[in-house]
Amino acid sequence: MAEAYAEILVVDLLGGMGDLLMLLPAVHGLARRNPRARLRVLTHEPGAELVRADPAVTEVRTPRHGRPGAERAAVVEALTESRPDLAVTTTRYDGIPDLLTASGARCVTDLWRRPPPDQPVGTRYLEILHVEGLLDRVDLTALPRVHVEEEARAAGERTVARLVGDPVAPPVVLVNDAGMAVKRWPRRHWRELSAALTERGHPVLTVGADEDPPGVPLPRGDLPTLAGQFKAVGRRGGVVVGPDTGPVRLAAASGAATVALFGATDARRYGIGGVDLQGSPSCPHRQPTAITEQPCWWEAACPLDRTGPACMADLGVPVVLDAVLDATGAAAGRCLANQPRLP
C-alpha cells in the first residue's frame, strides 16, 4: 500500500503564474492520493490568487516582501510553523532544497532533472512524482485546471455577454503582451489579425498593456476574475490567442481553447495543449532544456535579426489566422455537442 502523508508542503517560487499552472496537476494529484492531508502551497502573488479557493489546497502562503532573501525566509517560516512529512519543490535557488531536506521530510527537490528535450515540463513533473511513488498512473495525463468560484463565473458571463452581444461567430481574445520582450509577437501582426477576425464576424477582445489595443479590452481585475471571463469565452466556443505567457495558460486551465505562439521557448517543452505554433523551429540558438542560457533570452537580442525576435516574426498572420479559425470551429462544435438535447 502507498504511504499516506498528513502534512504536505508544495513550494513553487519561480515567479510566474504560468510556472504555478504547470505544477497544478501535481498539486491535485498529491491531494487526491492523500485525501486527509493538510496541503500547503508556498508561491508568489498574483498566482497565489488562483489556488486560494481550490478545494485541494488547505493553505496558501506567500513571501512577506520583495527584497532579496524573501523566498528563503518564507520557506523557513513555513517549516517553523509546521514541519511537513512530504515536501515537493520546483525551486532550486538560495539553498531552498537543502532547507527542505534538513527538515526531515520526505523530499522531492529536483523536478527538472534530466528532462528529454521533447517532453512537456508539466508532464515531466508528473512522471518524476510517479516514479517516486507519490502519484498514480492515472495522474500522468492530468491537465492544469483552475477552480473558478461561482461568483467569478457569473461575473465573467455578465462581462463577456455585455461586450460581445449575440455575434455571428465565436469571440476571440488576443493576449497581445508578454512579460518578456523575447516572447512578444510584432504589434503590426496583432493589428492585421484583429482586422481579419473582425471582417469574419468574430468579436475581438484583448488582454494586455497596449494603450491602443487591437480590440475591446476585457475589464481589468484579479486573476480569478480573468479566469471567469476566459471560462465564459470558452463556453461560447471562443478562442484565446497569445504568446507563451501566463494569461494564455490560465485561459486553457479555465476551459477555453487556445492558440499559443512560441518563439524562444520550445513548444514541445512548454506547449499549452491547444494549438501550439512554433516560430523558426530550426533556430540553432534555441535550447529546449536550458532556455535562460539562450543569447536572446534576457534582452531579446536576437542573433538572427537586430529588429526583434526572428522566431516570433516568423509566425505570419495567415498561419495564425488559419489556426484561430480552425480552433473556433472545433471549439464551437464541442459546445454544440455538449448542449442538452431537446425532447
Report on this structure:
This protein is an alpha/beta fold. It folds into two domains: 7-141, Rossmann fold; 151-337, Rossmann fold (3-Layer(aba) Sandwich). It is built from eleven helices and eleven strands. It has helices at residues 17-33, 70-81, 96-102, 121-131, 150-164, 187-199, 223-235, 246-253, 267-270, 310-313, 317-337, and strands at residues 7-12, 38-43, 59-61, 86-89, 106-108, 172-175, 204-207, 216-217, 239-243, 257-262, 275-278. The strands form two sheets. Strands 8-7-6-9-10-11 form a six-stranded parallel β-sheet, sandwiched between helices. It has a five-stranded parallel β-sheet with strand order 3-2-1-4-5, sandwiched between helices. Helix 1 links the parallel strand 1 and strand 2. Helix 1 (17-33) packs parallel to helix 4 and helix 5 (150-164) crosses helix 7. It is globular. Pfam families: Glyco_transf_9 (PF01075). It comes from Micromonospora rhizosphaerae.
Q: Would you tell me the overall average pLDDT?
A: 94
Gyration radius (Cα, Å) is 21 Å
- CATH-level-2 architecture of the largest domain: 3-Layer(aba) Sandwich
Number of beta-strand segments: 11
Can you tell me the number of structural domains?
A: 2
- Structural class call reads alpha/beta
Distance from first to last alpha carbon = 49 Å
Instruction: Describe the strand arrangement of the main beta sheet, using strand numbers.
Output: 8-7-6-9-10-11
Low-confidence stretches: none
- CATH topology of the largest domain, what is it called? Rossmann fold
Question: What summary fits the major beta sheet?
Answer: 6 strands, parallel
The helix-strand sequence is EHEEHEHEHHEHEEHEHEHEHH
Name the CATH superfamily assignment of the largest domain. Glycogen Phosphorylase B
